[in-house]
Design brief:
With about 250 residues, the protein is an alpha/beta fold. It is about 40% helix and about 25% strand. It has 2 domains: about 1-100 and about 205-245, D-Maltodextrin-Binding Protein, domain 2, CATH 3.40.190; about 100-200, D-Maltodextrin-Binding Protein, domain 2. The chain has 9 helices and 12 strands. Strand 2 and strand 3 (about 35-40) form a beta hairpin.
Length: about 250
């Protein structure tokens, strides 16, 4: 019995000692690089959660399509922040705990006359800018797949996407609410763009572990730890502290 318990403890220590390789994307304010440092709301939550687990991590910023490919083939351990889709669930184990709740919105130029009442079919005469391989939730994803919009232009990341709008190459762009405002502030173009008043969808985003890496035990421990941070109020404090630093 003693030997079995000792062996289990040693194995757990070895698992925890191994550095977990995470990947993410440039997606402010959730995750982004500034002056060579990785920052962001989701980054703060991720770092705190794994610190509570005594689990070393590295975080690598990659184009989203490549990040998802690495998770699918098992060359990286986990990715954040990811929306849950049936396709992704085939190769990734998503956390049960929500990492970030995100509102997906449409942004247009300040002088635009586009009106949105929540029905995407009413926008069939307009072009839309999106980030390549990003999921915006089932509602908008399905509208794109069924050719609801006049045209869909793809960019490699969020700043390029808003560039399509500002250069008048598209009529509107999709983005998370906070992400859109962060990009516009960075570009100093807040006065040139407005958010349509009704969100497309409010979506939970998660950390997703590669099924190839067989990390369900680590995923479960992450869920427990993040759940405790939420119950204790520490999760909300991390969020409040982040936005306080932006003022």
């Amino acid at each position: 019995m003693f030997i079995a318990i000792t062996a289990t403890l040693v194995m757990n220590s070895l698992v925890q000692a191994k550095t977990i390789r995470l990947v993410t994307l440039e997606y402010p304010p959730y995750e982004y690089t500034q002056d060579g440092q990785l920052k962001g709301l989701a980054v703060d939550v991720i770092r705190r959660t794994f610190k509570e687990m005594n689990q070393p991590i590295t975080i690598e910023v990659l184009p989203w399509a490549r990040a998802m490919r690495y998770i699918k083939e098992g060359s990286r351990d986990a990715v954040f922040t990811a929306f849950k889709t049936p396709e992704r669930e085939r190769f990734a184990d998503f956390s049960n705990q929500v990492l970030m709740q995100q509102a997906v919105s449409l942004f247009v130029r300040r002088d635009s006359k586009i009106a949105f009442d929540g029905d995407l079919r009413e926008l069939d005469t307009y072009s839309l800018g999106v980030v390549r391989k990003i999921s915006y939730g089932l509602k908008l994803d399905n509208a794109i797949k069924t050719d609801t919009f006049k045209r869909v232009e793809e960019a490699n990341e969020g700043t390029q996407n808003f560039g399509l709008l500002l250069k008048k190459r598209v009529d509107m762009v999709a983005s998370t609410k906070y992400g859109g405002y962060h990009i516009l502030k960075k570009l100093d173009r807040e006065s040139d763009v407005k958010e349509l008043p009704i969100s497309v969808q409010n979506l939970p985003s998660y950390i997703a572990f590669s099924k190839e890496r067989k990390l369900t035990q680590l995923r479960d421990e992450f869920d427990k730890t993040l759940g405790r941070l939420k119950q204790s109020g520490e999760y909300q404090k991390i969020i409040d502290d982040y936005f306080a630093r932006q003022l």
